[in-house]
Amino acid sequence: MENTTLNKAKKPSFGLHKLLALSVLVILYVFFSIFGNNFLSWDTLINILNASYYIGFMAIGVTFVIITGGIDLSLGTTLMTSALIGGAAYNMLGWSIAASLVLTILTATAFGILNGVMVAYLKLPPFIATLGSQMVGMGFGAIVTKVMTMRYPTVGTEDAWFKYVFYMTDPNSPIGRFPVGALWLLAAFLVASVLLNQTRFGRYTYAIGSNREAARLSGIKTRRWLALIYTLCGFFSGLAGIFFAAAYTTIIPGTGNGLELLAIAGVVIGGTSMSGGVGSLTGTMIGVFVMSVLKQGLMSMGLQGHWQTFFTGIVVIGAVLLDNYRIAAANRVKKPT
Hints:
Layout: H1 2-8, H2 16-35, H3 42-50, H4 53-67, H5 75-91, H6 97-121, H7 126-145, E1 150-151, H8 161-166, H9 181-198, H10 200-210, H11 212-217, H12 222-248, E2 250-251, H13 259-269, H14 281-300, H15 305-334
Antiparallel strand pairs: 1-2
Helix pairs in contact: 2-14, 3-14, 4-9, 4-10, 4-12, 4-13, 4-14, 5-6, 5-7, 5-12, 6-7, 6-12, 9-10, 10-12, 13-14, 13-15, 14-15
């Protein structure tokens, strides 16, 4: 019975949606290379990669959640809250930076567990449950830090290795200025891809998203696996918090709300269906880089950030319309003749 359910929840191939997203990425890059000011340069490429780190980690985690048909609106505040808690341990309690980073990941994972329990066991709608934890996170971070800004090590300080390991190599090193965060993101993508495509965890993720009740009747402990999926999403938010702190150094209490929309937009642009059961991490990474190229390209043309928001919204709407068309076409095929 379980095999039947898993067969129905087949992992999607690199289909039309992802090909279109990849085409958009290439077209944007070519367009800005022609019309942008100094867009086709090593510095711009570094900026594109730097803008992708924390969004990419959040997007990897929430891809699993959206494939199940759920949503996590607490990503942004979980990122900031976990970075604040880690920063408080480092600045206020005198912890080592390494221990503070572990605390950052543990804090975000705890929020993931909270979301998983509320959605899977208390049966709260994911939208409401994660919206509530979003507000809890904003308040909790401010309470613990006493509404004080937390700062992470910068270049030239005792723990400067933090920047070099998680953000950018020392320009005076043999390899020069290199965006080492891209290697971490690539490693996370490869590990998560194996988890999604080659393990029981991934098969159950697709099965729950395709038909949760059928998955339950087939013997899959859907509540346990759903809780684990939200926990994994929290873990990746913690990683995003580390890379956000490495990139921006300063963490301000009460912020982070809205960052989750960038991650969700990347997932949707990459072809993951909001109705569940369909999605891939390859598409998610393409979606994340579409947004990063759009941001840097518009800046190269002298346009400010609100233009990025405007055009990102248009791309997201187009992606959702394409997904609706895919669902409608699939339903027409299923109807008996």
